[in-house]
Amino acid sequence: GQNIDQPTEMTATEGAIVQINCTYQTSGFNGLFWYQQHAGEAPTFLSYNVLDGLEEKGRFSSFLSRSKGYSYLLLKELQMKDSASYLCATNTGFQKLVFGTGTRLLVSP
Amino acid sequence: DVKVTQSSRYLVKRTGEKVFLECVQDMDHENMFWYRQDPGLGLRLIYFSYDVKMKEKGDIPEGYSVSREKKERFSLILESASTNQTSMYLCASSSKTYEQYFGPGTRLTVT
Fold it and tell me: How far apart are CA B98 and CA B93, in angstroms?
């Protein structure tokens, strides 16, 4: 079966740090994606983790633990433009992705 | 710059009509995908294609078919539209690097 869990909504303040968690149980696992989607727009790629550990890319970092079926996306120095939905997705093989329902992040001044 | 385009941003069709959604990518990608996105359900894969004239069923293929006659174009067909197919439809493409590039989406309403 396929099951991906992430919080529905989170709020944070400009300049703060926020961590968005994702737990997964999927048949077949080759890696985990994070995408950002602003309202009314297409999802855009943020990160792809294949191996355990933390990968940092500017203000965004993504962590993966394959043994725990767990990932998180860490956003530092939050800006208003970071208000968006963040989608966690597992690559179950041959680029076939299974998406979670997304976490809506609201950044306030 | 990477570009995936979809034929319409908004579409309104009647129940029973045949509907064509077109997707074109200009990146020479081998792989193309069709998803639908619904509130509370997230993105769900309908069909995908690894190459011209090849197609694979995704998680929710019922009521849909696809066509890929050229590498850059992937069409989603609703043979007989129904109200439960009202949704946002997103096309994506990728090469072997796994990152999928998404089009802007088509919001389809079936009345």
Answer: 9
Q: How many CA atoms lie within 13 A of B29 on its CB side?
A: 28
| End-to-end Cα distance, chain A | 41
Predicted confidence at residue A1, as pLDDT, reads: 63
Give me the mean pLDDT over the A10-24 stretch: 97
Enumerate residues 6+ apart whose C-beta is below 8 A from B64. B34, B46, B47, B76, B77, B78, B79
- From the list B41, B48, B99, the residue facing A45 with the nearest CB is B99
Chain B residues whose beta carbon lies within 8 Å of the beta carbon of residue A39: none
Which among B60, B104, B58 has a CA at the least distance from the CA of A43? B104
Quickly tell me which residue has 């961590």 as its tokens.
A19
Q: Return d(Cα A18, Cα A22) in angstroms, integer.
A: 13
CB contact (8 A) between residue A97 and residue B102: no
Stretches where chain B sits below pLDDT 50 are: none
**A31 reaches B (C-beta below 8 A):** yes
Q: What's the pLDDT score for residue B2?
A: 66
Show Cβ contacts of residue A72 under 8 Å, excluding neighbours closer than 6 positions: A19, A20, A21, A22, A62, A63
Q: Which two tokens stand for residue A93?
A: 């093989």
Q: CB contact, 8 Å: A42 with chain B?
A: yes
CA angle at B51 for the pair B44 and A51, rounded to the nearest 5°: 60
